Amino acid sequence: MIKNFRYSSDWEDFVKAVEIIKEMLKLKQAFFSIGFLSPCALFLRDDVYLETDIETIMHDEVVYLLRWYLKCNDEGKQVDEKEIRLELKRGKGFKISEEEERLLIKSISNKLELVKDAFDIERLSVRYQLKQNAVNAKLSDFNYNICTCDLPNQKKANFALIDMVCKRNLLDAPQGLEKILAQYEQGESITFICDEEDIDMMIRMLKEMKQKIKGE
């Protein structure tokens, strides 16, 4: 998992990235997706604008550390110094001195502790374990297009075409040659049409589902 010094950001920048995520979660400007569209990811609202360096730390460091912890926790492993060292050893082409390794392990440990303290790690762990151990399909892709249909008598109607794909297993997309050679589960897809009133109805139905899940 650790390649090319992924966790090499300055401590101050890392803390800043974590604090921004906390604030965005509070304001509903960001959401942790667990087993929904991605195994573990941070989704930002389209109207959120961040410094490029900070956003990179969020996705490449904070989310990676969170995903690593959730995965190990689900497998009954502790993300301790020994586990961090093993991950460093597994990294392809990752060669550093013993002193550099010691400092990097300490840095990763501190960053991981901050991530665990900053977010509702218990709730995230429950969500991760639920999705990882479920045999049901998970939503893996969601897209829509807004279209206009020409009707008789020069009337027009706007509508949306919604595309959804569901898979049994959500995997992080491999890079480079691995991506070319990877055999992906295609999943089951569905495309359906809906208009503005249909979307209002879906919103009401989703709100009702949310209330029932919360036991309200």
Question: How would you describe this protein?
Answer:
The chain is α+β, with helices and mostly antiparallel strands. It has a three-stranded antiparallel β-sheet with strand order 3-4-5. Strands 1-2 form a two-stranded antiparallel ribbon. Strand 3 and strand 4 form a beta hairpin. The longest helix has 23 residues. The chain starts with 10 loop residues before the first helix and ends with a helix.
Report the count of strand segments: 5
Strand order, largest beta sheet: 3-4-5
Largest β sheet strand count, sense and barrel closure: 3 strands, antiparallel
* Relative strand content: 15-25%
Shape: elongated
Kindly name the structural category.
Answer: alpha+beta
Short description, anyone?
By secondary structure, the protein is of the alpha+beta class. The protein has helices at 11-26, 52-74, 81-90, 98-118, 121-133, 176-181, 196-213; strands at residues 30-34, 40-44, 138-151, 155-167, 188-194.
